Amino acid sequence: MSDPAELLREHNIPVTAQRLAVMKAVSDRPHSTAESIAEEVRAGIGTISRQAVYNVLGVLSDNGLIRRIQPAGLPALYEDRVGDNHHHLVCRTCGKTVDVDCAVGETPCLTAAGDAGYEIDEAEVIHWGTCPECRKESDSKASSS
Q1: pLDDT in tens, 25-41
Q2: Beta strand pairing status for 87-91 and 126-129?
Q3: Confidence (pTM)
Q4: Residue 109 and residue 52 in one domain
């Protein structure tokens, strides 16, 4: 992430300790929930209300400084990788989420068959599966049975 204070100024957002701490937490722990971001911020600067964290996350995401993703059935996650059209892999077992770059070239499943008059500028894709750690744990449980 570029200088957080400068990014805030570029977007005419007042620079505060809370905003800087939330930006740092999102940068340090991508794909975190608002609650885990609040815990990280509290560890760094002390008291901050849950609502203040949600407010900062809203301002930052509304201004394109962070990205909010919402995998089905899970709480919203926040990351600071913005400006590209990457996608995500989510583990069905533990919820771990990682970035995956867009497919390059002809990708029929990612190209809308019809645009209904929309000017499409982004696709949001979430791939679901089981992460290596959960697969390993499942395999070890199966072999010990």
Answers
A1: 999 999 999 999 999 99
A2: parallel
A3: 0.86
A4: no
